[in-house]
UniProtKB/TrEMBL annotation:
UniProt source species: Mesorhizobium waimense
InterPro entries membership: HTH_17, SinI_DNA-bd
Name listed for the protein in its UniProt record: Helix-turn-helix domain-containing protein
Top-rank lineage group of the source organism: Bacteria
Listed Pfam families: HTH_17
Length: 86
């Protein structure tokens, strides 16, 4: 906030639209829809519209970040083993 960045407060129990969920994950809406249809993220239907719980989004984002860190550590270890100077 002190640097002029926007802050959004979202209740943990909130249900977001697919566009809001995509914005939170910093992905496109079609990609988010694919995640929902593949069962990687749970969602509820409200009429004909999908809604995603913020708590599920936060858990997905945390798990994805942990997976990225793990893969990067493995790549760094392989690079060191191969003497690539990293």
């Amino acid at each position: 906030m002190g640097q002029g960045n926007a802050v959004t407060i979202i209740p943990v129990h909130a249900e977001l639209t697919t566009q809001e969920a995509a914005d939170y994950l910093n992905v496109s809406r079609p990609y988010l829809i694919r995640l929902l249809e593949e069962g990687k993220l749970p969602f509820n239907m409200v009429g004909t519209h999908r809604r995603v719980k913020f708590s599920d989004l936060a858990a997905y984002r945390n798990n994805a970040e942990e997976e990225r860190k793990k893969v990067m550590e493995e790549l760094a270890a392989q690079a060191q083993e191969l003497g690539m100077g990293y």
